[in-house]
Amino acid sequence: MSLRAVLAAGLICLGLSLPAAAQDPCADYVPQPKPQNTGRDEVGQDLETIMERGFMTFALYEDYPPYSWEEGGQPRGVDVEIARLIAEYVGVDPQFRFVAAGENLDADLRNNVWKGGIVGGAVSNVMMRVPYDSAFACRHEQVVFTGQYSVERVAIAYREAEYPEEKPVPAYFRFDTVAVENDSISDFYLSAFAGGQLAQGVRRFPDMEAAMDALAAGETMAAMGPRGQLEWGLADGLGLHEPPLPGLAVGDWTLGVAVNFRFRPLAYTVDDAIRDGLQSGAIAGIYESYGLSLETPAYR
């Protein structure tokens, strides 16, 4: 399964969108057994040692534009720049580890934050672009979820010539064609919408870059996916909007970072760095430099 499917479809599997209610999200949680045989490379990752050695490591998803990828041997992307901002705040250099997505978010956190992979895996000081939900956080005591810096939403991009007046909504795709990433939240949603009546209009692609390329080339009339990836792929003659998506349980999610629970002073400092970046406008500037709009969590 691709990274985008892990991040998006995984939200459904993990139940990251729950009915709003004034209740304790951890009320029904049973504490987990303490983790055993965690990686030896966790030694020396406290904040003081990081500052003494002069660098900190960041886990970023590989081949995931516009957020994190390598181009000509150089790291690029929104999350790369936010990681640089964090390291600068701490007063050290950043080192980047581009990692493949695991089977689900649980595996990604285990492999990159608190334990390490089975063969040659190394944990990082900070993992970027981690979806946050209070109930999910209760079930993962080994991780501190902090530094929430953006909100992602499902949106629809479209060819303006095909929709000169009314912008497309999901019901249109009973007859119109729409590009999605295979096995993504948009794919699942449209395939099940109205008892499967939209299935004939759905065109599946290996990733959102290919989906947006198909839209720009006129192969489809619209594309549906995370807003940031749609914005990254916009070209002349394409528009973007966020219509109501009836029946979609997870239409938006908050993104932040993850830190090993043993190193809370580091987690507090990372959160301070991100808060400073949001308040100063530095993070908004990073998003703007990649042609993206930033929506910050309401409590920031």
Automatic annotation (TrEMBL):
Q: Which Pfam family is one of this chain's hits?
A: SBP_bac_3
Please provide the record's keywords in A-Z order. Signal
Q: Domain named Solute-binding protein family 3/N-terminal: which ranges? A: 57-104
Domain of life according to the entry: Bacteria
Tell me the protein's name: Amino acid ABC transporter substrate-binding protein, PAAT family
Q: Where is the signal peptide?
A: 1-22
Q: Does the keyword Signal apply?
A: yes
